[in-house]
User: Which sequence fits this backbone?
């Protein structure tokens, strides 16, 4: 697969996942679409708004809108605030940009989705982490 094919393959998987994703509890559908497309891990550097997709076809970086530019103090890791942000998102009560901002406010500097283990682990600056498992789903 060429680099352009790898990127197109990833974009198509993201579109399939978004189309199948219900408003409430939708993340597992996106993750399953990515897994089926050969994505093994998705890592996000939260303040930079940058994603790294590790795939069986090659690795892809997607630069989103950064939350901070220049120097900024990293918030302290707050597990309770992170869990609140997760539950709000899982209930369909936040947009993805709102969720990312809430993660940053909770002290999350990066997170890692493991599509085989069906986990998402959120990390703070001092080695703190919180892991959630997400359910297996069948795409329509």
Assistant:
């Amino acid at each position: 697969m060429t680099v352009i094919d790898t990127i197109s393959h990833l974009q198509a998987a993201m579109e399939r996942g978004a189309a199948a994703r219900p408003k409430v509890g939708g993340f597992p559908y996106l993750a399953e679409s990515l897994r089926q497309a050969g994505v093994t891990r998705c890592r996000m550097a939260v303040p930079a708004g940058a994603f790294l997709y590790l795939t069986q076809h090659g690795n892809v970086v997607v630069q989103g809108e950064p939350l901070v530019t220049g120097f900024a103090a990293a918030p302290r890791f707050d597990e309770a605030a992170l869990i609140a942000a997760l539950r709000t998102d899982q209930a369909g009560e936040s947009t993805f940009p709102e969720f990312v901002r809430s993660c940053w406010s909770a002290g999350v500097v990066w997170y890692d989705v493991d599509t085989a283990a069906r986990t998402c682990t959120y990390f703070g600056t001092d080695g703190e982490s919180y892991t959630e498992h997400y359910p297996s789903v069948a795409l329509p």
